[in-house]
Amino acid sequence: xxxxxxxxxxxxxxxxxxxxxxxxxxxxxxxxxxxxxxxxxxxxxxxxxxxxxxxxxxxxxxxxxxxxxxxxxxxxxxxxxxxxxxxxxxxxxxxxxxxxxxxxxxxxxxxxxxxxxxxxxxxxxxxxxxxxxxxxxxxxxxxxxxxxxxxxxxxxxxxxxxxxxxxxxxxxxxxxxxxxxxxxxxxxxxxxxxxxxxxxxxxxxxxxxxxxxxxxxxxxxxxxxxxxxxxxxxxxxxxxxxxxxxxx
Length: 248
Known about the structure:
- It is built from eight helices and no strands.
- By secondary structure, it is mostly helical.
- The longest helix has 31 residues, at 32-62.
């Protein structure tokens, strides 16, 4: 199997976790505290992945300057894009409650869909990058993407359902994002093969900065809203699990 195709399939698997979470939310009445707890756990998993997989790999590949530049650029780009989407109704796109309906804010459906795509693409590109040079997919990164995407899809789909959005819209959004995630991983592997170590480091760090900013802006607020005093502990457990996977 061509490596670029393998990268696309791994990206599709990671993005498919969003659909899995949406399916659970649509057919099962999951208590909000459970959703928030899994969201906190997923936040810890992703934080560990950013620190011990993405940033460490980027620094080792291209040096601190390239890594720091990419990291800050990823954070800035994500913040600016998130601010623009927030004005159009996508501020609470990961919330299990509080999402606006189309009647309340026209265009919010499209903004939520674009926002969810913004959250998922950096993770998928990293999966594609991990296969460059004939390497195997990073198990810890793949596990982190999958584990974090399930609660993301679950919480956001629950909010979409409560705001009156149809099953066609909900599963169209998450199914489409899963496919685009696969394409992002595929293109990340295909187009970035042979780039300089500094360029690879910058791109990896851009993804890391965007992911960390996404965690702080969207995932942790949802988790804290419901779990409060337990958020830190659950997030720490997620971090520990992902760290153990990195060592393994």
